[in-house]
Design brief:
single chain; 465 residues
């Protein structure tokens, strides 16, 4: 009995000793935030493969949108009756595809999809690899030293992944051929494998990150990468978004969700609505190389622009519709401006998200007027939506449009809004989207991206330091 009492007393003393409040550590070190700049660009879009080709065609008023074909459905292996019936059932027959071929400005399928190293890779991953290759060469950043690779990371996201692979797998189940399923099926459909393959190809051992925030994916990928550099996780980040969702199942899904308009192309290749954003599905990729300013200056890199602000918010309202007060968009833009240290009047151009949905466009327009006030309504703020030329690239949209925004600063040209025949009454006096390219000095420019689920991102770029 005495022995048991002593044991209990000892346990109580031990418990009491360890339950006493521990002494806290000193605050962690807080290094100063580093400035981040853009030193490399790469694109694969319906306007062409490559930044120079895409930008030239955008400024010249070219449009990458065309009529849907049966081949676009990617239903190889299905019988003709099923394919024809599927095509007839689709309420939207407009798409924007990447031009394939071996000529300049075309996506070389043999190089990026059919070569020995890429046969197990889905198209959206191939697009990311192609645009990354261009961006890294443009930035002249292909390090061989282990230390530099450890200080280089990847942040590339996507919206949907490879739905066509899922459709093929479902067909195999129906045909009782599941044992023929490719061992690469899962790696082909996982969205993070775009970042994974880029990391593996170049040996980048820094942060390996993949964002999935619907149509805001590309912008969030870039913004997150900026913060990784600012906080010292890496010196260089390869960042952007990629998408390839032109297939029977994806198009049917968006049609059933009333996200695509019931239209076809006219003989003039013009559309009869405000914009072409939600009227088609399109594909492509946009990637930029981001660097700490000091790192870029030390190696003598060319600097396109500085990333001055990254604002994010959530609507907390509806799956696809923003609240009529536009508070989510206002918060994202305001937060980007607050981080930048710039006044709204110092922003010269806005690349709007502008998906051609009547409610979404009006809400965004009013949000821009709320943030920029007289600067917007006076006509001093240039405004356009490049989706009129490229269509809506979904998970790649934010990255491609961010690159357009950077190029507008670099070249001193605000790109036009194509296929805009009847602007909404919300636009009046000096507050109107550009219908033609405008040569102007652009010191700072904002790119908006909003996605399903009410997720918002705004990226603010400025001329090089």
């Amino acid at each position: 009995m005495i022995h048991r009492l002593r044991s209990s007393r000892q346990r109580f003393q031990i418990t009491r000793h360890f339950s006493s409040k521990p002494q806290p550590f000193d605050p962690p070190p807080v290094p100063p935030l580093r400035r981040v700049v853009v030193t490399g660009l790469g694109m694969v879009t319906p306007l062409g493969c490559g930044v120079e080709t895409t930008w030239r065609r955008l400024i010249n008023g070219s449009c990458g949108i065309r009529a849907l074909s049966i081949e676009d459905l990617k239903m190889e292996g299905f019988d003709k009756e099923t394919i024809d019936h599927t095509f007839d059932q689709l309420t939207s027959k407009v798409v924007a595809t990447v031009p394939f071929g071996a000529n300049a400005g075309e996506f070389n399928e043999e190089l990026w999809m059919n070569s020995k190293d890429h046969r197990s890779i889905a198209k959206f991953i191939s697009y990311a690899l192609c645009s990354t290759d261009e961006a890294l060469k443009d930035a002249n950043w292909l390090p061989s030293e282990l230390e530099k690779k450890e200080r280089t990371g990847v942040s590339i996201g996507g919206g949907i992944g490879s739905i066509s692979d899922i459709l093929d797998a479902a067909r195999m189940i129906c045909e009782k051929r599941l044992r023929r399923l490719s061992p690469f099926f899962i790696p082909r459909i996982l969205i993070n494998m775009a970042a994974g393959h880029v990391s593996m190809k170049y040996g980048f051992k820094g942060p390996n990150h993949a964002v999935v925030t619907a149509c805001a994916t590309g912008a969030h990928s870039i913004g997150d990468a900026v913060r990784m550099i600012q906080f010292g996780d890496s010196d260089v980040m390869v960042a952007g978004g990629t998408e390839s969702s032109i297939d029977a199942l994806s198009i049917a899904g968006f049609c059933q969700g009333h996200c695509l308009q019931n239209i076809t192309l006219s003989h003039k290749n013009l559309l009869d609505r405000l914009n072409v954003a939600e009227m088609d599905l399109c594909e492509g990729s946009g990637v930029m190389v981001l660097e700490a300013l000091e790192h870029a200056q030390e190696r003598g890199a060319r600097i396109y622009a500085e990333v001055r602000g990254y604002g994010t918010s959530g609507d907390a309202y509806h799956i696809t519709q923003p609240h009529s007060d536009g508070r989510g968009a206002i918060l994202a833009m305001t937060r980007a401006l607050e981080q930048s240290g710039l006044h709204p009047n110092q922003v010269d151009y806005v690349n709007a998200h502008a998906t051609s949905t009547p409610l979404g466009d009006v809400v965004e327009a009013n949000a821009i007027k709320s943030v920029f006030s007289d600067h917007a309504t006076s006509g001093a703020l240039a405004l356009s939506s490049t989706k009129g030329a490229t269509g809506h690239l979904l998970g790649a949209a934010g990255a491609v449009e961010a690159i357009f925004t950077v190029l507008s600063i670099y070249h001193g040209i605000a790109p036009p809004t194509l296929n805009l025949d009847r602007p909404d009454p919300v636009f009046h006096d000096g507050f109107r989207p550009l219908s033609a390219p405008k040569k102007m000095s652009i010191r700072a420019a904002l790119s908006n991206s909003f996605g399903f689920g009410g997720t918002n991102a705004s990226l603010l770029f400025a001329c090089p330091p």
